[in-house]
Amino acid sequence: MPLSTSPTSIRKALISAVMLVTALCLSLSISISTYLDVKEQKQLIVNKLNILAEIIAFNAQVTVLFDDRKTEEQRLKSFEKIPLVKNIHIYAIDEISNKAVFFTSFNARKTPPVPLRVDSIEQLQQPRITEDYVELIKPITYEGDIKGYVYIRGGLERLNEYINQKILIDILLTLFVLILVYFVAKRIQKRIADPIDHLSRLLQDVSKNHNYNARAPKTNITEINMLSNSLNIMLTRTQNQIERHKNDKQEIKQLNQSLEEKVNQRTIALREANQELLTTLERMHQYQNQIVESEKMASLGQMVAGVAHEVNTPIGLGITGSTLLRDKLAEISLGFEQKTLTSSQLKRFIDNGIENLDLIYRNLNRAAELVSSFKKVAVNQDGEINSLVNMHELITNVMLSMRTELESKAPKIVIHCSEQLMIESKAGPLQQILQQLLSNSVIHGFKDNQNNEIEITVERNESSLSINYYDNGIGVDKSVKKRIFDPFVTTKRGEGGSGLGMHLVYNLVTQALGGNVYFDDQNIEGTRFIITLPLTEASKL
């Protein structure tokens, strides 16, 4: 929401701006000038004290060396005529302790003595400036040896008086300049604001009375003249536009009369075209329904052929084994009735019978497994209840359960999944999906047990879980890429592949888990499947 500002006039704004800028410039200029002046005055005082301290140190060489305190005290009294000097201390170096000790001092009139500064000699080698005083210490040297120190303390009373006097003069000067600027600004304001007021009244007249014949007069200000010229051009163009608008209205009336006739003709033509289009669409729907039915029948025929082929093979072998066993049993029965049965014949019959029964059992068991696979594909697996699933632990358990099957191709399995990734889903369908994908890689993807790799990447975002499964095997044959999720589609017919594995994966993902599975047919090497599962509200927390 924009901030609301109170309205103001150009007169007030102009005076306020000029006064504000002038005040700021004066304040800044006076502040900088005062600061530099005070700094320079302080530096002059420091320089003067340095010179006085050096003079005192030079004069005190002999008195300190011969311990002549009276002579030095008389000499220091001459500093009473210098108002700047407030206190002077002279320290001598004790020959035994080699430390500075008090020698003599000077205090100006009405100035209290100051404590000894023998502990601050190092700090006061550089001048110390406070609000009221300046302090410094200079060494007393004789033939290169330090014989003592001179401490001098100067007052800043006159500097403070100078600063106060300068501030008062600056304030008076500022007030004078501001008053002068105010009157100059009033003059400029009148010169600028009056033509603008005239333009404002002119625009009000145009807006109320639609008097587009009015024109703004010229003034002695270039910018306002430019504004007046632009306003006059706008009024001229507006007047011309209104006249053209009146002429256009008349032309539009004439065009509307002829347009109605054209619209009627086009409406009749459009109605005929729409009728023809509806007929074409109806014919296309008929063709589409025929194509769909043909595809359904072709898919159903392929499925029936697949079921018949897969089931007929074990049943045919079982029938062959049972027929052979029956023939052998008839021979044994005949030999038993004729009492020509020998032990070797009975032994051979028993061995052949065991082989035939094993053959019958294996093929019937194979038929039962096929029927179970068909039921898995056909039955809706929504019965399982959602539970909290650790994805990393689930993948690890699936790999352990298929360890024997995976050892034949010895793939290197890399898992990119957080060990703390928890979702609420159905563990059973997830396990079956991973088992089918791993079996598909072992049976169809890898030729031998050299340099085989499987990579499983599990990532979660705000609304879904993504499982990216990849193996570096031989990939998928071009003939089955488009039909990889159809039932009974396999390249290992008769070699252990039923063609139901990927169809089962598709059903589990889309029906049991409500997700999507995508086969990356653009992948150049290996095989990649991308599974996307929606997350429940509990999984998002």
TrEMBL record:
Catalyzed reactions per annotation: ATP + protein L-histidine = ADP + protein N-phospho-L-histidine
Domain Histidine kinase: 306-537
Keyword Nuclease included in the entry's annotation: no
Span of domain HAMP: 190-243
InterPro entries in the record: HAMP_dom, HATPase_C_sf, HATPase_dom, His_kinase_dom, HisK_dim/P_dom, HisK_dim/P_sf, Sig_transdc_His_kin-like_C
Predominant subcellular localization, coarse grouping: membrane
Segments forming a coiled coil: 235-290
Keywords tagged on the record: ATP-binding, Coiled coil, Kinase, Membrane, Nucleotide-binding, Phosphoprotein, Transferase, Transmembrane, Transmembrane helix
Subcellular location: Membrane
Transmembrane segments: 13-36, 167-185
Pfam families in the cross-refs: HATPase_c
Enzyme Commission code(s) on record: 2.7.13.3
Keyword Cell wall biogenesis/degradation: no
Domain of life: Bacteria
CDD domains linked to this entry: HisKA
GO MF, any single term: ATP binding
Protein name according to UniProt: histidine kinase
Originating species: Pseudoalteromonas rhizosphaerae
